[in-house]
Design a protein that fits this description.
The longest helix is centred in the first third of the chain and has 14 residues. The protein is mainly β. It is globular and about 95 Å long. InterPro entries: 6-blade_b-propeller_TolB-like, Cueball_EGF_LRP_Nidogen, EGF, EGF-like_Ca-bd_dom, EGF-type_Asp/Asn_hydroxyl_site, EGF_Ca-bd_CS, G2_nidogen/fibulin_G2F, GFP.
Length: about 1200
């Protein structure tokens, strides 16, 4: 309900609320006990209830919860909780919980009771509703069901008998969960003196663990990983726990109210402070003022008053008790600050922001606890979605000394008599809390959802989770915005509403002297509510947008909601919007504007004639933000500014379902545009400065260009400064430096995290997180940890069961061989004793060697020798392990791809992940290297890239399987997982849309479509150990290696399998890797036997040795003049300049282990085409290119009637 302009807010609140029950004295709990039908939890130290099935679902973090579990330890779990040793002392908890007082509590031997029930009686519903309306006065919430859980006189866990003081203490508290069909609230009640202890002893040591009050969303379990849920911490130290009964967020001591679930997926606290006192030293009357939106100041006097009512109930002790809820009266708002000495107000807890969640991490600084002071004057102004302004300010001194973290790293903090303010340093723009480099292009990302009726259609068009991306050329004030995917039924009708993206143009509009754009005023942290009224039929659309500042990637974030009705614009029409101006009025953290705009619609041609018509709408918007009230210079900009918008471009693409807006923006004085200052190229955006430069206006039309911070050049052309290369020690130890355009970012390596200073990377002690099994020892190591079952148990440390460790086949054979003199010999080797070699997990090492003869050979997972792998003394064959590495339980890693930034990259496989290294020209940007994809229980061997769809493909020999994932982000997909032995090499034909791979166990080469369908065996004879495979799709050729120790070779054929022939067979040892450069038409390979890297033109047959004496190469790829190969001995990617035959560089990942396949992810596909490029070459199934033609082939499992083969 919107307050009338002439009526102050507090008067409305007092008048609007019903006569609620008020306390006759101290806070009382809601009725509870067996007489109220409560169930009682069994006595114990870690008891939990059976599932309490709910008649009305509880809304929690946006999800519906239909059953709850009550526990001794002060929590209500939304899923079945684990044993207490797995969660006490940790937050969040994986099973999800509501925690009014999470601690190690004990009700054994009659030490207290835990009662719980679901209740729908009218008296309890009314009591709960009244509490909620105290914290949320404007809510219309009407609960249909309430869950009441009471912990009464519960004791702490007693770790030491000598701690008699703690043994006698008892706590009483209550949690009330009220739900309707659409939303839920939580009420935590802490009566006076009800909390006598604030921490409990740990069962693991003699230390104390403070209690925890908060909310925790359940984790989400995926196949390979667990994603932690969001969480909110209310109190987690003894000082804040001690003051729970003294403070409040709902205007009454000991009462805490939270909205825990509705359409939102977050927790919203009430914000009615219990420390709202306005006592001048010589005044007796108590008075508060508020400022209604768009009206003069008004005031009302609130005098102490009580309205009483009561509900009879019976406690367990049979005493008559009056249950009452506090009325929203002056006594509650104006409690003396001295009554809660040492406790900041609710606003001090929340600091004008939502409290910490996993999505919005907490600040690195603890809440300040203030010493006793004299009563303070508190001004109250607020702002809510109806346009009422709320701003909280206390005279408790806030200084830069303890608030510097609230300023941007590119800002200075300055103290003022009544507080502090942040200001961006020279070269940066913003409000001090958020600063960006002047002149630097900006990106805005977000989501859009809506429910919009189009024309007279009775059915709305609904959409959600739709992407919005915007790019801003700041020195031109030019903003480009794209929204996808918008259905065609709506897309054309949204064309007139360019200001959906226009708000971004206002934020980064070109500033004239003395005027500020939206980012300079708000720092990109604000909410905007817009009402659009279309003239004529009076349709209305409401747009709500929230800007949340700059994220960890340096991008601004926005969420947009739209609801209402708009006129229909026919499909295929175009819309033209003339340049316009708009006045922005700023006053006390609120900006408003209103205007009428026209647009011209040109309908699609009919019979050669295109009709046009003009539409118009009224646009009213309110922008609310936080400003620093201490620095008067912040208000130096004019209260009224004019935004000038021109070059407006709107377009809807029906094929891509993308809505696009573009416009140029400048902000300055109210003018008709004729003033000279408006004509300076810096203000009109007609300069020729680089997009990463600042335009500095001079006199008249003169100007000069200056590169933005983080760039070098003359201003006309600016180059990014690579701070990471120029200052290698910039990020310190255990961190990597990632260069970004105009800046850089430090990231801790895996197993480390930032310390409280936000700069130093310190080891994560995973052993404190309880990852190992209770019957296992945990050993923390720098960057990692390990688990080992205790004596008498067997397992991997993460799961341990009674009994000695069962020996593997390899361990058993090794034990027998060592004890009996040895009876296990590979074929034909009978000299001396052969002792099988096992790895630390008991698997056969993939390479087995005879200690006496020096012969080595490869074995499969059962220890059987693989044909064609036996090598003479001194030569180790390149054997692959089929045993997947054990999954290390550490920080959760997502099994989906991290989107790659633009440019060309190297992709390479390392154990259970695929990593990438960006390429800048021919150089590896090693500080930009990071994991692209984590698949920890796989052995990835071959890697290939589809430059058309930006997909990476790989082979896994542990499954075995072939999979793919998008480099735009997303989870991997297995496309082939049957009839595979040991898939190794893989190649992508990006023109014909096929994949080819080798299988060294089944000794064959196959082809299939990119999605794994339509498999066909090309070759299953004449192969012993096929490994690398590459394609030349423009010429229709296929190449592969076979490292058969008795007859190594490199072969070729057409891509349809015809014209097979040996290309190289002389002077080869172990040809492991192969690459074909589409630009130079050179075929290159690495050989671990001859230790050479060689190249040749397949059409000329002459070979060239590029480098010799390399160590143990496995795979190779090419880009430009460089070849890049992985080396097993060096655990590195090595770069070689093939034009001068010199090693140029090498890159070793942070964690050293064997590297496998490598490929080049081109920024753009190489030019060219083949006969399969268009319409699949006219083939019904597989189209396989040949030189100058193509062959249509059928899959092996397709009956001929459905498939036509032809050349």
């Amino acid at each position: 309900m919107r307050a009338a302009p002439s009526c102050p807010r507090w008067a409305l609140l007092a008048l609007a609320l019903p006569a609620l029950a008020l306390p006759a004295g101290r806070l009382s709990l809601l009725p509870h006990g067996q007489e109220r039908g409560d169930a009682e939890l069994e006595p114990g130290d870690d008891a939990r209830s059976a599932a309490l099935e709910l008649s009305t679902a509880l809304r929690f973090y946006g999800a519906a919860v239909r059953s709850l579990y009550v526990t001794t330890n002060g929590i209500i779990a939304v899923n079945e909780p684990s044993s207490e040793e797995k969660y006490l002392g940790q937050f969040p908890v994986s099973f999800g919980a509501i925690a009014p007082f999470m601690a190690d509590l004990d009700t054994t031997d009659g030490h207290g009771n835990v009662y719980y029930r679901e209740d729908s009686s009218s008296d309890v519903l009314q009591l709960a509703s009244d509490y909620i309306k105290r914290g949320f006065p404007e809510t219309t919430f009407d609960p249909s069901s309430v869950v009441v859980v009471t912990w009464k006189l519960v004791a702490p866990y007693r770790a030491r008998e000598e701690d008699h003081a703690l043994e006698e203490k008892r706590n009483t508290f209550q949690a009330v969960l009220a739900s309707s069909d659409s939303s839920s609230y939580a009420i935590f009640l802490y009566p006076e003196d009800s909390l006598q202890f604030y921490s409990t002893y740990s069962k693991n040591d003699d230390g104390k663990i403070p209690a925890m009050v908060g909310f925790s969303q359940a984790s989400t379990n995926y196949y390979f990983w667990e994603k932690p849920g969001s969480y909110n911490v209310i109190a987690n130290d003894e000082d804040s726990i001690r003051n729970l009964h003294k403070s409040s967020n709902a205007g009454k001591q000991g009462v805490w109210v939270f909205e825990i679930g509705s359409s939102s997926d977050s927790i919203v606290p009430a914000k009615i402070s219990d420390v709202l006192e306005s006592l001048e030293s010589n005044e007796q009357d108590q008075e508060m003022t508020s400022k209604p939106f768009m009206s003069d100041y008004g005031s009302t006097e609130i005098r102490q008053q009580y309205v009483t009512s009561s509900t009879d109930s019976t406690e367990e002790d049979q005493h008559h008790v009056t249950y009452s809820v506090p009325q929203l009266a002056a006594e509650d708002f104006l409690t003396s600050y001295q009554d809660v000495t040492g406790t900041p107000s609710t606003e001090s807890f929340y600091s004008h922001q939502d409290f910490p969640t996993a999505k919005a991490p907490p600040r690195q600084f603890q809440v300040q606890q203030f010493p006793p002071q004299q009563p303070q004057v508190i001004d109250v102004e607020e702002f809510d979605e109806t346009g009422i302004v709320f701003r909280y300010h206390t005279d408790v001194q806030q200084t830069c000394a303890n608030n510097r973290h609230q300023c941007s790293v590119h800002a200075i903090c300055k103290d003022y008599p009544n507080g502090f303010c942040c200001s961006c340093i020279a070269g940066y723009k913003g409000n001090g809390r958020q600063c960006v480099a002047e002149g630097s292009p900006q990106r805005v990302n977000g989501k859009v959802k809506g429910r919009i009726f189009v024309g007279n259609n009775p059915v709305p068009v609904t959409f959600e989770n739709t992407d919005l991306h915007s790019y801003v050329v700041m020195n031109q004030g030019r903003a480009y915005t794209a929204i996808s995917t918008i259905p065609e039924a709506l897309g054309y009708s949204l064309l007139p509403l360019a200001s959906i993206g226009g708000i971004i143009g206002w934020m980064f509009a070109v500033e004239q002297q003395g005027y500020k754009n939206g980012f300079s005023v708000t720092g990109g942290e604000f909410t905007r509510q817009t009402e659009v009224t279309f003239l004529g039929n009076n349709e209305k659309l409401v747009i709500k947008q929230k800007f949340s500042g700059i994220d960890e990637h340096g991008h601004l974030t926005i969420s947009t909601e739209m609801e209402g009705r708009i006129p229909e614009i026919p499909s295929g029409a175009s819309v033209h919007i003339e340049p316009y101006t708009e006045l922005y009025h700023t006053s006390s953290s609120v900006i408003t504007s209103s205007s009428t705009r026209e647009y011209t619609v040109t309908e699609p041609e009919r019979d050669g004639v295109a009709s046009t018509y003009t539409g118009a709408y009224q646009w009213r918007q309110t922008i609310s933000f936080d400003e620093c009230i201490h620095d008067d210079s912040h208000h130096a900009a004019s209260a009224t500014q004019q935004l000038s918008v021109d070059s407006v471009f709107v377009l809807y693409n029906r094929d891509e379902q993308i809505l696009r807006y573009a416009m140029s923006n400048s902000i300055g004085p109210i003018s008709d545009g004729s003033a000279d200052i408006n004509r300076n190229p810096c203000y009109t955006g007609t300069h020729n400065c680089d997009t990463n430069a600042i335009c500095r206006p001079g006199t008249g039309n003169r100007f000069f260009c200056e590169c933005s911070v983080g760039f070098r050049g003359d201003g006309n052309v600016c180059y990014d400064i690579d701070e990471c290369s120029e200052q290698p020690a910039l990020c310190g130890s255990n961190a990597v430096c990632n260069n970004q355009p105009g800046t850089y970012r430090c990231e801790c390596v895996e197993g480390y995290q930032f310390a409280a200073d936000g700069q130093t990377c310190v080891d994560v002690d995973e052993c404190q997180q309880g990852h190992c099994h209770p019957d296992a020892f945990c050993y923390n190591t720098p960057g990692s940890f390990s688990c080992q079952c205790k004596a008498g148990y067997r397992g991997d440390g993460f799961r341990c069961v009674l009994g000695e460790v069962e020996k593997t086949k390899c361990q058993h054979e090794r034990e027998v061989a060592l004890g009996s003199g040895g009876t296990f010999f590979p074929r034909e080797i009978r000299v001396g004793h052969f002792i099988p070699q096992c790895d630390e997990h008991g698997n056969y090492l993939p390479t087995q060697c005879h200690s006496s003869s020096g012969y080595c050979w490869c074995v499969d997972r059962d220890g059987n020798e693989i044909d064609g792998t036996k090598s003479g003394p001194g030569v180790r064959p390149p054997c692959l392990s089929t045993a997947a590495p054990p999954v290390v339980i550490g920080p959760s890693v997502r099994p989906d791809t991290v989107p790659l930034p633009p440019g060309t990259h190297l992709l390479f496989a390392q154990s259970g992940k695929i990593e990438h290294v960006p390429l800048e020209g021919n150089n590896m940007k090693k500080n930009g290297a990071k994991a692209l994809l984590h698949i920890p229980d796989k052995v990835v061997i071959g890697v290939a890239y589809d430059c058309t769809d930006k997909m990476v493909y790989w082979t896994d020999i542990s499954g075995p399987s072939i999979s793919r994932a998008s480099l735009h982000g997303g989870e991997p997909t297995t496309i082939i997982k049957t009839d595979l032995g040991s898939p190794e090499g893989i190649a992508v034909d990006h023109l014909g849309r096929n994949i080819f791979w080798t299988d060294s166990q089944l000794d064959r080469i196959e082809v299939a479509r990119l999605d794994g369908r339509q498999r066909r065996i090309l070759f299953d004879t004449g192969l012993v150990n096929p490994r690398a495979i590459v394609v030349d799709p423009m010429r229709g050729n296929l190449y592969w290696t076979d490292w058969n120790r008795e007859d190594p070779k490199i072969e070729t054929s057409y891509m349809d399998g015809t014209n097979r022939r040996i290309l190289v067979k002389d002077d080869l040892g172990l040809p492991n890797g192969l690459t074909f450069d589409p630009y130079s038409s050179m075929l290159c390979w690495v050989d671990a036997g001859t230790k050479r890297l060689e190249c040749m033109n397949p059409n000329q047959l002459s070979r060239r040795k590029i480098v010799e004496g390399i160590q143990y190469p496995f795979s190779v790829t090419s880009y430009g003049k460089n070849l890049y190969y992985t080396d097993w001995r060096r655990d590195a990617v090595v770069a070689v300049d093939r034009t001068i035959s010199i090693e140029k560089d090498n890159f070793q990942p942070h964690k050293r282990s064997r590297l496998y396949g490598i490929t080049t992810a081109f920024a753009q596909c190489p030019g060219g085409h083949n006969y399969c490029t268009v319409n699949n070459g006219g083939c019904t199934h597989l189209c396989l290119a040949t030189p100058g033609g193509r062959s249509c082939r059928c899959p092996d499992n397709t009956v001929g009637v459905d498939c036509i083969e032809r050349n």
